Amino acid sequence: MKRLYILVMMAVFALVGCQSNETETDSNASNEQPKENLEKVTVVLDWTPNTNHTGLYVAKENGYFEEQGLEVEIIQPGDAGADQLVASGKAEFGVSYQESITLARTQDVPIVSIAAVIQHNTSGFASPADKNIDSPKDFENRVYGGWGSPIEQAVLETLMNTEKADIDKLDIVNSGNADFFTMANQGIDFAWIYYAWTGIEAELRGEDINMVYLTDYSEKLDYYTPVLATNENMIEEKTETVKAFVTAASQGYQFAIKNPEDAAAILSKAAPELDTELVLESQKWLADKYQDDAPRFGEQKLEVWQNYADWMKENGVLEGEFTPETAFTNEFLPEKGE
User: Fold this and answer.
1) Mean pLDDT, rounded, for 166-194
2) Is it true that the peptide bond before 226 is cis, omega within 30 degrees of 0?
3) Cα(251)–Cα(217) distance, integer angstroms
4) Helix, strand, or coil (residue 281)
5) pLDDT at site 27
6) Can you tell me the distance from the alpha carbon of 72 to that of 62, in angstroms, rounded to the nearest whole number?
7) Calpha distance 211→274 (Å, rounded)
8) What per-residue confidence (pLDDT) applies to 298?
9) Average pLDDT over residues 217-231
10) At CA 124, angle to CA 118 and CA 125, rounded to 5?
11) Closest-CA residue to 267 (of 255, 258, 279)
12) Is 321 exposed, middle or buried (0-12, 13-18, 19+ CB in 10 A)?
């Protein structure tokens, strides 16, 4: 999945002229007619619907948004990225990533993370098992297929340095939007994936893969990916709306944690183009990853934001001043037990 690159890079694009009219409306969600007094808001996804988004679809289908006085439209980003639409106010909420928000904040883009969807980074470098790539040391004399982002090389070098491996012995090629399962035919040995989706798909295909997870080699690479986001204007002028959205979304993800099979059915109903078995197995795998060891769903730590920004600066992929306290907030999360 190429979501990492898209979300990292879109934050640095100019917000002027973003084409919000080209977004795609999700017409498969609940058909229930909203009440006239509901406040209409939009949440834009970072990618096509998947199990990172299940809580949003559950909140809509189960009426949690309506209970909070909201009529929520879930859309896909289209040509204008999620971060652009949210930061410019053309969408009230969106799905983003810590890395893209960090980059955006250094350029005074007013986007703020309001909840962590997954507590720990579940991404890593995947390879067919017969390649025998079991650790970063095995990256030497291999071909990595990516998308040409400076962050990729920095992450690869960080992991390789932990085992005194030489990144100059790694061939990094731009594989564009090539599917992970066809990369081997292009001479590519490994790629960066999210196990919750591509890894589970490999299991269902009966294809054995090895994973080298970022978090196994660097604490600073255990960042929030993805997150729910809004803009500063919403926080300052529509505080109650933000509170209502986060409350309902949290209920949706809590439902997905406790009822992964039912939650998977809701996502499949909303996005029937998805493979239902993949949705179900991915949902079951993610169920205990959403909140994980946090005291409540969505909670974020200052040290996680600071650590990742420090890593970015150390590796030359972050310029300018970054103040982590302004990049996220736990203010709108329901109290534990609500």
Assistant:
1) 92
2) yes
3) 33
4) helix
5) 36
6) 12
7) 24
8) 98
9) 97
10) 160
11) 279
12) exposed
Q: Cβ atoms within 10 A of the Cβ of 316, count?
A: 10
Split at pLDDT 50, 70, 90, the class of 36 is confident
Residue recorded with tokens 């109290």 = 335
The contacts of residue 311 (CB under 8 Å, 6+ apart) are 158, 218, 220, 221
Quote the CA–CA distance of 285 and 124 in Å, as a whole number. 16
With a CB cutoff of 8 Å and minimum separation 6, the contacts of 4 are 97, 99, 123, 149, 151, 192, 225
Residue 74, classed as helix, strand or coil, is strand
Tokens 């997870």 map to which residue?
213
d(CA 228, CA 298): 9
pLDDT in tens, 78-136: 777 899 999 999 999 999 999 999 999 999 999 999 999 999 999 999 999 999 999 99
The span from the CA of 144 to the CA of 176, in Å, is: 12
Residues 140, 160: Cα–Cα separation, whole Å: 9
**Do 83 and 100 form a contact (C-beta atoms < 8 A)?**
yes
Res 212 pLDDT > 80 = yes
H-type alpha helices, 289-330: 302-314
* Percentage of the chain modeled with pLDDT above 70: 89
Give pLDDT, residue 79. 75
For 183, list phi and psi in degrees, rounded to 5.
Answer: -65, -35
> Angle, to 10 degrees, between the axis of helix 150-161 and the axis of helix 302-314?
100
Residue 12 pLDDT greater than 70, yes or no: no
Beta bridge pairs of residue 212: 125
Note if the bond before 128 is cis, omega within 30 degrees.
no
Position 92 scores a pLDDT of: 98
Give the 3-state secondary structure of 233-271: HHHHHCHHHHHHHHHHHHHHHHHHHHCHHHHHHHHHHHC
Pairing of strands 227-231, 171-174: unpaired
